[in-house]
Amino acid sequence: MDLVHEINQSKLFELAAILQEPLQSLPIRLDNTPVFTYSSAPVEGVDIIVYSDSLKETADWICKKKYASSGRLNTTQFRFLLTLSNQTENKKDISHLQQLKTILDNTHDGMIVIDQDLTITIFNKSAEKMTGLSKEQVLGKSILEVMPNSQLPRVMDSGIEEVNQEQILANGTKIYTTRTPILNQEGRKLGAFAVFKDITEIVDLAEEVTNLKSIQTMLRSIIQSSEEAISVVDEEGKGIMINPAYTKLTGYTAEQVIGKPATTDISEGESIHMQVLKTRKPVRGARLRVGPNRKDVIVNVAPVIVDGLLKGSVGVIHDVSEIKGLTEELNRARQIIRTLEAKYSFEDIIGSSEEMSFALDQAKLAASTPATVLLRGESGTGKELFAHAIHNASSRKFNKFIRVNCAALSESLLESELFGYEEGAFSGALRGGKRGLFEESNGGSIFLDEVGELSQNTQAKLLRVLQENEIRRVGGTKSIPINVRVIAATNVNLEKMIADGTFRQDLYYRLNRMPIYIPPLRARNNDILLLAYHLLQKLNQDYGRNIDFISKDAEEFLLAYHWPGNVRELENVLGRAIIHMSHTDSQIDRSHISLLSIEPSKKADVHLQDMTETNEDEKTLAEQIDAFEKRILTEAIERFRGNKTKTAKSLGISLRNFYYKLEKYNLDEKVRK
């Protein structure tokens, strides 16, 4: 009843009623103070509910049911208010104190109040959260008991306020606190209070902001220094960032784009930015025209999504005209390099016909093996091109590739060039001797063109190279080991030369290990126009012209011709046509190739006398067998209307063997499509 007495003695508080449990009597009688049970308590005129700590749950229930708008204090907190109220003459200040207590209890900053006995009287929710202590654990207890490192007792003793002091609580929380003594008007010390805030979160946030600024600066620098044109828009499709490469490509500056719709820079086509913002899906490889110069570009755009929310989109723009220019420049450079170094690959061999596809397959197979290759075909079919491609597709491609035209050198000179010579081997020999081409190409490949023109003596030395993998210089006695891949080529009938005794049969077997037949142009009509347009590019470069097309009449004219000179003749015809054209012409017409006279297609057996014309009695057995085989082949070709695959299958021979027989008997015209 001490608290009741204190309230009655107070000038600023009035005891409205006492609430008690049913059937419970007070220890003393209070004549002027009504007593109610919890259920019959009055609702009007109550500002503060004061409760004992042991009845907190009951007090919470009563306030919730009847006094939701009233303040609520335990006895310790109320006694602190009594102390403060004794210094106040205006009764209205009590409601202000009540409101203040409510505000402080819900403020984000932590607050602790102690009285002159160092007892904790106020401990708000934020203080609970930061310290990890509950009100029930601390209220009514000494500050030094629950928080031994508290500086509030020192502040109360000194009477000096401490502002923004850094402190680490027992649970590791880092705070900034302001400690203030509580004094009455006479300067008497009534207690002290502390207001503090958790700066751990602030420090983390500051570090995060700093990191974000660093990342933003870095990303902006990357975008600005990129050589790719970049454009960024917000979720509404308005420009928020471009880089110098974008300005260079489109011609638009930041002032013309930033804050403007994404369609501002488009001169032809739909905005990809708006499409991406609508679908929230990236778009790649879209073609547009942008800027006042209507630049042809390819655009890649991706959405920017943060935490599931669309924030905008980023676009990267590529100048198609620049890409085309670089590609053409690269192709021209490659052609120049190949012209200087005479290097070709399978990609340079033009042809999609069945005959050429078969020859290419055989050549690629040969490239994967170290075997000697024999290229057979008419002059101008591209045997040297095949030789280069085989070397460049083999494991020897990084070593030397040496070309030798066996028909262009005399026998004595060819031998010394191929095998080298020792000092004094002949008059005029260099001092110290000379390495031959086989030695120079050691580890690589050597291409022997027109191998059928070799003399018997040179054939014997070449056979030794192929058998023993060693050479002997002219005038020398020491054998020199070599590792060279031989690619030979011929346009003559080696089998006939063997029969005539002009070519060694044993050398033939060594060279013919991997034979490849390259069909003449007349046997692959489907490739004529492909080759014509490919050769046009080369001739344009050689003559500084810009001829892009061949008229329909000219195409039909080219397809009708027999092409005895094969691809070399086709290049000659096109080059002669370009020379006689006007510099303003961009298309080859029929009139431009009028210098070419059409000859009717001659059957292959017109070029060589049919052996059947010779008196049968004058023929040898081999000649009669060949004539009989030729007739069988001719009949089979006609029966299957020139279909090579079906003809070879019906005869029970391989397609490759069929090609050899076509060449042997000059029957390729009969299978021309």
Supply database-style keywords:
673 residues; alpha/beta; 6-stranded antiparallel beta sheet; 5-stranded antiparallel beta sheet
Task: Explain how this protein is built.
- Helix content is 41%, strand content 19%.
- The protein has 27 helices and 24 strands.
- The strands form seven sheets. A six-stranded antiparallel sheet has the order 11-10-15-14-13-12. A five-stranded antiparallel sheet has the order 6-5-9-8-7, with helices on both faces. Strands 17-18-21-16-22 form a five-stranded parallel sheet.
- Helix 14 crosses helix 15, helix 21 (528-543) crosses helix 23 and helix 25 (621-639) packs across helix 26 (644-651).
- It is elongated, with a radius of gyration of 52 Å.
- The model is unreliable at 336-342 and 599-616 (pLDDT under 50).
- InterPro entries: AAA+_ATPase, AAA_lid_NorR, Homeodomain-like_sf, HTH_Fis, P-loop_NTPase, PAS, PAS-assoc_C, PAS-like_dom_sf.
- Keywords: ATP-binding, DNA-binding, Nucleotide-binding, Transcription, Transcription regulation.
- Residues 349-579 form the Sigma-54 factor interaction domain.
